[in-house]
């Protein structure tokens, strides 16, 4: 949803369905993990209003990464599909090339 391939709303596939990640507690560590898992050096969080709201499932909420994880699934979270969010709170990132 970004103007180029290194920025946009965070979406993740689980159980054969794509969904979003809520921005509750979403910060630099979480953005870094996502961006590094996509092959970038790192990144930082961005407001979802810049990239539009997702549709469908909201998969993750209250994601807490240490920063050294190789994927967002390895970070602590409330469990798949457990959230109190709307798509107004979709997380987004801008990755560093």
TrEMBL record:
Disulfide bridge map: 65-75
Keywords of this entry: Disulfide bond, Glycoprotein
Domain (SRCR) ranges: 1-96
SUPFAM superfamilies in the cross-refs: SRCR-like
UniProt GO cellular component terms: membrane
PANTHER family tied to this protein: SCAVENGER RECEPTOR CYSTEINE-RICH TYPE 1 PROTEIN M130-LIKE (PTHR48071:SF27), SRCR DOMAIN-CONTAINING PROTEIN (PTHR48071)
Name of the protein: SRCR domain-containing protein
Annotated source species: Capitella teleta (Polychaete worm)
Lineage: Eukaryota, Metazoa, Spiralia, Lophotrochozoa, Annelida
